[in-house]
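Help needed: design a sequence for this.
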């Protein structure tokens, strides 16, 4: 990095790999960090973006403000002006790119699932350990102020001993049977279906607020077994496919029973073909003295029941300054934060990890934990038995 004076902001050079929706979101989040987290004392500079698609590279320069673009991601990792890297590519490229970033000594922020399989995630974690770098994994729902408030209440004992947990990650983004068969439906390129794509978020959230999941029992099903092949060029997954029907190779729906190390019992299910829910990513935690409920579709609300004698049941608490990082985005309760704000917090946690050398953001170790729960769930789907989740090393 370029030397800075004691009073001037430290400039962080950013490299981006893959300029899709998530890559654009990462780029906006980096730009927003100095405004919302001024105490970090940093400026972000969008140096270079890599994407093999010319139209995507043009977007990176014209819309996002990157100084230059390249087709080969290795050029991003070799660039001495790049201090941090965002990896926003499809799942099947994650391990290759993350390991290369670690070997180049570049701290990286990677989206989940971190790898197609737990074996990919283990290779990434080993490379990061060898390099001694800080990292971040895209578990952005941790950053919702309602989740921060939920975690605080549980830790303070407000709901007593946690007895059971319910989670649901229900979406309709693949409910159209004529939507094209993209890489997300191929086992070799995506790994699992909703287990890694959606449930990994819920599993991470449950562990974040309740504690470690020690064992799981699971079932899954593929309900739309064939999809038409896509056309050429950039695929719009909302447009119907035009090619011949090909088999879907991973699950549309999965359900898990979970046992937590602290004695709590959990149940969680997920679907990508559900009709009705658009993005119902919900977490409910019940205890001996009360319960807490949150749904991403009502991002800025937490349902709270802390008094068993309350005849009205739940009270809706609207997020406001004092709840998580809400104060950085809105001045008063009732004015809502959005999804992009959660990614800005995530970017800030990553950059704080980089400038302090201390792991603040969810790391590849957390990504590996989620992958190992998915691996145990897949083993259970195969043999119908409970499977233990390996303890974190």
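Sure. Designed sequence:
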């Amino acid at each position: 990095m370029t030397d800075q004076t004691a009073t001037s902001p430290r400039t962080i050079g950013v490299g981006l790999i893959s300029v899709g929706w998530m890559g654009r979101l990462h780029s906006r989040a980096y730009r927003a960090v100095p405004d919302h987290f001024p105490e970090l004392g940093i400026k972000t500079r969008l140096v270079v973006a890599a994407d093999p698609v010319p139209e995507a590279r043009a977007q990176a320069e014209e819309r996002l403000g990157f100084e230059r673009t390249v087709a080969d991601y290795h050029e991003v990792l070799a660039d001495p002006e790049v201090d941090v890297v965002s990896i926003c590519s499809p799942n099947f490229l994650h391990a290759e790119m993350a390991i290369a970033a670690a070997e180049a000594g570049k701290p990286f922020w990677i989206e989940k699932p971190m790898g197609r399989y737990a074996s990919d995630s283990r290779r990434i974690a080993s490379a990061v350990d060898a390099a001694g770098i800080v990292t971040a994994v895209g578990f952005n729902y941790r950053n919702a102020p309602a989740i921060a408030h939920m975690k605080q209440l549980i830790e303070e004992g407000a709901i007593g001993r946690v007895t059971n947990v319910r989670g649901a990650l229900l979406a309709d983004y693949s409910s159209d049977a004529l939507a094209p068969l993209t890489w997300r439906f191929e086992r070799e390129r995506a790994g699992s279906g909703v287990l890694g794509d959606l449930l990994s978020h819920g599993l991470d959230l449950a562990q974040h607020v309740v504690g470690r999941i020690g064992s799981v029992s699971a079932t899954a099903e593929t309900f739309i077994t064939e999809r038409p092949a896509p056309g050429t060029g950039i695929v719009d997954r909302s447009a119907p496919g035009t090619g011949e029907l090909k088999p879907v190779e991973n699950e549309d729906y999965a359900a898990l029973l979970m046992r937590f190390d602290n004695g709590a019992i959990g149940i969680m299910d997920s679907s990508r073909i559900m009709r009705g829910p658009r993005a119902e990513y919900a977490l409910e935690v019940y205890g001996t003295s009360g319960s807490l409920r949150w749904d991403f579709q009502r991002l800025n609300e937490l349902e709270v029941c802390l008094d068993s004698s309350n005849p009205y049941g739940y009270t809706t608490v609207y997020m406001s300054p004092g709840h998580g990082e809400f104060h950085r985005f809105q001045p008063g309760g009732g004015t809502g934060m959005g999804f992009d704000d959660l990614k800005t917090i995530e970017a800030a946690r990553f950059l704080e990890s980089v400038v302090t050398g201390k792991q603040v953001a969810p790391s590849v170790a957390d990504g590996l934990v989620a992958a190992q729960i998915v691996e145990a769930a897949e083993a259970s789907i195969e043999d119908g038995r409970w499977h233990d989740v390996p303890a974190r090393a």
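The first strand starts at residue 10 and ends at 17.
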